[in-house]
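thoughts on these C-alpha cells:
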Amino acid sequence: MNAVYIGILTPGTTSRMRAETLRTITPRWHWHWIDTHKPYLQASRWGRTLAMRFKIGPVMQATNRLVQNELAQIAKTNQPDLIWTDKAAYLSLDTTKLLRRSTGKLIHYTPDTAFHTNKSKAFNASLPLYDYAVSTKSFETAEYAQWIPADRLLMTTQAYDAKVHYPRFAFEEKVPEVSFIGLCEPDRMDCAEQLLAAGVPLRIAGVNWEDFCQRHQHDAHFSFAGREVFGDDYVNMISKSWISLGLISKRFPELHTTRTFEIPACGTILATETNRETQSFFNDDEALFFTDYQTLAQKIKALLQDPEKLRAMASAGTARVRRDQRDYHSILSNILAQTGTLSPS
C-alpha cells in the first residue's frame, strides 16, 4: 500500500511524532513524506506573520507549490492509496482538490483548533473533500457539522509519544518544584504570580515571558529555562520536576491539551483545571485538580511536603495514561481502523 503524509516534519514536533508513529504502525506500507514546514522556516519574519495570522502571502504560495510538485513526482511511480494531511490550514482549495483526485482515501488530522485560532477559509471550503476529519476539540463539533456529515468526523483525545514521553529520572532524583512550558498568556501569568506569592518553587520556559522574568529576577523561588525548550530538553524539564502545570489556553474553550497526557507519561504529577474532560481522564489520586490558583498554590505547598504522596500520585498518573492507551500508537491505530484503512488489532 502506498501512502503520503503531508505535514510539519521538523524533529521534536508532534506532527513528526505522528508521521513516525504511522510508519511504525504500518511496516509494510510505502510512506512518502511531504514537509510543509520548509517554506515557513525559510521565510522572512514578515512572511511568517502573514501566514500564521491571516493564512496569506508567500509562505502559503510556496507551501502549496511544494505540495503540488512533490505529489506530482510521487504519482509518477506510486499512485497513493491514502493521503494523510496533518494541520492543513495552509493548503488551498485547489491543492486539496488535487489531493482528492490523487487518492482513494483522504484523511485530515489536527490536534489544534480549526475554527478559532488556525482558522482558514480555504480549509473550511476544502473539508467536504475529505473522507474523514479527525479532531481533538470537542467544542468545535458544531462548526465541523456545517461542512461535513457527522459520520465523517472522528473525535479523539490528545496523545503522547511513548518513545519520547517517559520518566527520565528516578523519584529520588526529582526536584521539589513546579514546572510549566508554554506561551505566556495573561491567565498563565496570573497563575505563575500566585504560585510565587505563596512561595511555591517555579520553573518556566516558553515565549513572551520577558516582562515576567524581569519582575521576578531576584525571586529565589523562580527560574527561567529559556524561550525554546523542545525534544529531550522538554521531556527532561517535565520529568525532573515533581509537579507540572497543564494550563489550558483561555483564547478558546478547550478542555485538555497535549500536556494533559505528556506530563503524567513523563512520571510527573499533572496539575490541571477541573472540567468534564480532565475528570474523565483522571481521578483525585492520579492528578492534582484545581478551580482557582490560590487553592492550587496551597495544595502544591502541602503536597511538596509529602514525598510518599508525591510518589504515589505520580506513579498512578503514569499508570492511568498507559492503561487508557493515550499514546499515539494506540490512538492512530484506532483512527486507521475507524476509517477502514487498517484492520482492528
